[in-house]
Design brief:
Layout (H helix, E strand, L loop, with lengths): L1 H15 L2 H17 L3 H4 L1 H7 L1 H6 L1 H4 L11 H9 L16
């Protein structure tokens, strides 16, 4: 049974990650980029200003919240999410069962 699943998986992987699948993926991305006027490049400055740039320019993003608020800032949330946990592997970010 495992051999059958492995063979089917190899055939599917060969199709998806083969030349045809990668060409289809590339052409779809190129087509969508052309249709949207390369939106991802035209608005990159806006995205950077309002995400990463806001950490350095907007003090409300990194300010510690009051004790009554019982919330954490966006920056603290980012640090908490990216910090390693003793139960997780270094690259694993999947929730672990307690």
């Amino acid at each position: 049974m495992v051999d059958i699943v492995t063979r089917i998986n190899n055939v599917v992987n060969g199709f998806v990650w083969g030349p045809f699948g990668l060409a289809l993926l590339f052409c779809t991305g190129l087509w969508l980029s052309i249709r949207t006027g390369f939106f991802q490049f035209r608005r990159m400055g806006y995205w950077l200003r309002h995400t990463i740039g806001a950490i350095f320019t907007n003090k409300d993003v990194t300010a510690h919240t009051s004790k009554e608020d019982m919330a954490i800032s966006q920056f603290q949330s980012c640090l908490l999410y990216t910090s390693p946990s003793p139960r997780d592997g270094l690259l694993s970010r999947m929730p672990s069962s307690a």
